[in-house]
Amino acid sequence: MDEPIDSYAAFWAHYLRAHRRPQTRALHYASTAGALLLLAVALAIWDWRLAIAAPLLGYGLAWIGHAALEGNRPATFGHPLWSLLSDLRMLALFATGRLGPHLDRCLGRKSDIQAP
C-alpha cells in the first residue's frame, strides 16, 4: 500500500482502487459468495472440514485475481479484518446495484447521475 491507511474510509478507497477491473471484482464476488455458502452448509451439517475450506475458497480465488488480473498485492495481508469487511461490503453493494457510485468516486470517474 503506497498511501497511509489510518481509517476505514481510506482503506475502502484503496480497496476499490485495488479492484478496478470488473474481472477481479467478479472473482471476488464468486469467492466471497462461495465461502459464505460453504460456511452456511458447514454449520447446517456440522462439518468442520467445510468450515476450513470456506476461507481457502474465499481467499484463493480472490488472490488469483490480484496476481493474474490486477498485478497487485491483496489488501488482506496488511489489514485482514478491514479486507474481510470490504469483501462483504463490495459483494452486498454489487448485489443491490449500489457499487457504481463508490467505484466512480474512488476511481475518479464521472457518475452518470448528476446531483441537482
Describe this protein with a few key phrases.
116 residues; mainly alpha; 5 helices; 70% helix
Helix content class: 55-70%
Mean pLDDT: 89
Beta-strand residue fraction: under 5%
Which runs of at least 5 residues are low in confidence (pLDDT < 50)? none
> What is the strand tally?
0
Task: Produce the secondary structure layout.
Layout: H1 8-17, H2 22-45, H3 48-70, H4 80-95, H5 100-107
Helix pairs in contact: 1-4, 1-5, 2-3, 2-4
Account of the protein in words:
This protein is mainly α and 116 residues long. It has helices at 8-17, 22-45, 48-70, 80-95, 100-107. It has one domain. Helices cover 70% and strands 0% of the residues. Helix 1 crosses helix 4 (80-95) and helix 1 (8-17) crosses helix 5. The radius of gyration is 15 Å and the shape is globular. The model has no long low-confidence stretch (mean pLDDT 89).
Describe the structure concisely for a colleague.
The protein is mainly alpha-helical and 116 residues long. Helix content is 70%, strand content 0%.
